[in-house]
Amino acid sequence: MTFTLIGPVPGFLKELVxxxxxxxxxxxxxxxxxxxxxxxxxxxxxxxxxCQANLxxxxxxxxxxxxxxxxxxxxxxxxxxxxxxLAVYFALKEATGMSPPWGSLTGIxxxxxxxxxxxxxxxxxxxxxxxxxxxxxxxxxxxxxxDVVATQxxxxxxxxxxxGLYIGIPFCETRCRYCSFxxxxxxxxRILPGYVRALVREMGAVYRMMQAYALKVRAVYVGGGTxxxxxxxxxxxxxxxxxxxxxxxxxxxxxxxxxxxxxxEKLRLIADHGxxxxxxxxxxxxxxxxxxxxxxxxxxxxEAAYQLARSMGFGHINMDLIAGLPGEDLDMFGRTLAWAxxxxxxxxxxxxxxxxxxxxxxxxxxxxPQEADVGDMVRLARETxxxxxxxxxxxxxxxxxxxxxxxxxxxxxxxxxxYNMDMMEDTGSVLALGAGGISKHVYGKGARIQRAPNVxxxxxxxxxxxxxxxxxxxxxxxxxKGIRRPSLAADQPDVLALEGEDQGKASxxxx
Length: 511
Description:
nine-stranded mixed beta sheet; alpha/beta; single chain; globular; Double Stranded RNA Binding Domain; five-stranded mixed beta sheet; TIM Barrel; 3 domains
């Protein structure tokens, strides 16, 4: 389907397009000759602004909203955008009869809206209710927000001198067909030594910067890709170079994501270098699905990897699962959850399948399961996590997610991943090393954020690592080319971005 947006949309076109795609995920925005016309009209009388959205064409419906304009320009811009989005949302809800689980929200961090309401003096319960009512969330999603924020409030938040360190290894033995992350296949391995040398160089320079600014390491996260795709000697080089960071960190995670990449020797290296948390990610227990999505391991290899890690003394193992994988129904996903419960990881991350344009499955037009099916999987996952004694402690959303749902991290009390929580809530600064990492400097608990990206291609990273080092030096000084600097007052939260898509982030725990 094609659609056209018509009317006063000052800088809000992208957000309004995202609202249309809540209901019509494959719809394309065009300038003229469309099957659906979305017409927005506005009028201002004194301090009252009225906004109306009208649908004509293959769908018909309308919705009108009015409200008081704000004297502060930034606050009024936020109100103006929200008013247009809600008018379009409710018109589409009326026309389609659909009730999306996250209502009108299109952003990746819905918890931050709860925090914004709490910043106005509301209790957590009242703040979750206000977000539910404003954005038309289903009760179960508002309850999830409540539970996540309740868990986070019992965990020490980072201060301005705390930094999370991300060390990126963007290589895998094979590429998953749903994957859109920046990762390359190991192939013949010729690129790996040069990449590790460049990474070690960047790590040394960043450590010296941190010393100069008296920054403290809160959490270290070695991710990818698959860090354990490196041969043992190169993995040891990376972990040895990370030793000064690890020594002062309260948490150290190493992704051992692919069970077929794990060996006793690699796990011994990881343990000896101080890891407190590893992640072994099967995604599903079903071998036929694993083969279909391009993962070269089996259920038996996952179980063997877990048993090996346990026998070597690892006390915090995370497991990743994906709801909505091709060919799987609720019964199959339920069996995977029961299997995960029997293995008993300390934390469980449940992703909803998201097919972005860079993935093979998207390019070949493979169907994404609908919300009715995947929604039941997500609900069952939450029930299973509760039975396992795991609490939700962070969540985020992405575009192109099956059923317009979410990803949730669950953990036993005391086993929450600080890096994941700080990253997704934008509460802590992150220095991201390696190809594709995006560093960010967070001021005033998210009041202002500056970002500095590394180049994405590993070969470019190798030749330009000194430039990446300079970008971080500039970031820590608060200036420099390639750094995004929002023009916000130091005490003004960046709430304009809360309801829209994120403006860029360093890597988080990846499937």
